[in-house]
Write a structure and sequence with these properties.
Layout: H1 10-16, H2 29-65, H3 71-120
Length: 124
Amino acid sequence: MTNNVFSADFQKIRNSLPSGTEPPDNGDMEQRVAKLESLAEKIGERLTTIEARLTRIELKQDEFARHYATKADIESVRTAVEGVKATVATSTSSIIKWTVGAVVASQLIPVLGTWLPKILGPGH
């Protein structure tokens, strides 16, 4: 792996600069500092705006969070659905039994009406 870190001998650079004089190329330092200060003020204003927006977003998120389903909510719905499934299965079984019984009875009644006098004999 190659070393991608820039290294410099800052002491050597510092020693090569003339001492006791104003740094070179700093004639417009006041303008540059004023510009940086102006930018810092603008950044501060923007940060204040961002913080206010973030606060509003957090409040809305808290409002939405009250409507989210929790694990307990989901588990209670799951339990209720299982109960409904069991009830439907039991009801379906009962309906099938009654339907079969009604069909059998509807078929036996006419037969019994015809056979009973023959089985019991005349006069009954």
